[in-house]
Amino acid sequence: MAPAYTKYLIPTMECLARLYNGEPVWVNRLRACLAGKGYTEFTGAYRGLNLGIKLGLIREVPISRKRSRYEPTPIGLVKGGVLDAVSEAYGPIDDTALKLADKLTEYLFYSTLIELPALITAGTMNPRKRGLTITCCDSYNRCFTDTIIPTREEVYYSMLIIKLLAGVPIIGLRPGDYSGAYYFAKLKMLRQLQKWKLANTPRGGVNPIITRVIRLLPVAQQYTHNVQELNEPNA
């Protein structure tokens, strides 16, 4: 049976990404970060940590017999950002979103891999720090922003995301790269979710997460396998 979702998972992942600089994070620092977000329950940090560990998003680092610190796994940095994007786009998420996180993360990997050559070329032709973006809106006044000419940071973090998801060892990361990878993955997935949302007008009475997110699967289907197994219960 899959681990039950807890509302503390996403804020725990975001706080870990923000606090992690290559050294494992103490629970007290994590709890203070969560409190700053409004999550003041004493056991909340442990609920988020325990689920993150079960999902392979967080690694526990024992310091002594009774004390541990915690750090995000490489895939945890990216998948945490993906889950955060789903939550921001569609509201509170549940166990179904946990199942889809693997598919959406795989989609992010392959789409970034496909886009990378064009990003490198555009980045070489436009070596400035600031890129060029464009905002698109539909007839319902729903808008999303997309990058036309990428920044150097977008090229850098695209390569970093690919390496993190591929399990390639990375040496010499800067302290800010960990949170940067998290927020970059969140932004890229949020842009994609907004595009898919524009193409799928919500119906009345639609479940805010289960039905809407499952409707994203045909888009990711070209990159993933066994999608039909997730669709069967909702057919």
Can you give the helix content as a percent range? 55-70%
Please give the count of helices.
Answer: 10
Task: Give the overall average pLDDT.
Answer: 77
Q: Cα-atom Rg, whole angstroms?
A: 18 Å
The best one-word shape is: globular
Give the count of structural domains.
Answer: 2
Oligomer: single chain
Task: Outline the structure in words.
The chain has 235 residues and is mainly α. The protein is built from ten helices and four strands. The chain has helices at 9-19, 27-36, 44-54, 74-90, 95-125, 152-166, 175-199, 210-214, 217-220, 227-231; strands spanning 58-62, 68-72, 132-137, 143-149. A hairpin with a 5-residue loop joins strand 1 (58-62) and strand 2 (68-72). The longest helix has 31 residues, at 95-125. The protein has a two-stranded antiparallel sheet. It folds into two domains: 9-72, Winged helix-like DNA-binding domain superfamily/Winged helix DNA-binding domain (Arc Repressor Mutant, subunit A); 77-223, no CATH class.
Could you name the key traits of this structure?
two-stranded antiparallel ribbon, mainly alpha, Arc Repressor Mutant, subunit A, 235 residues, two-stranded antiparallel sheet, globular, 2 domains, disordered C terminus, 10 helices
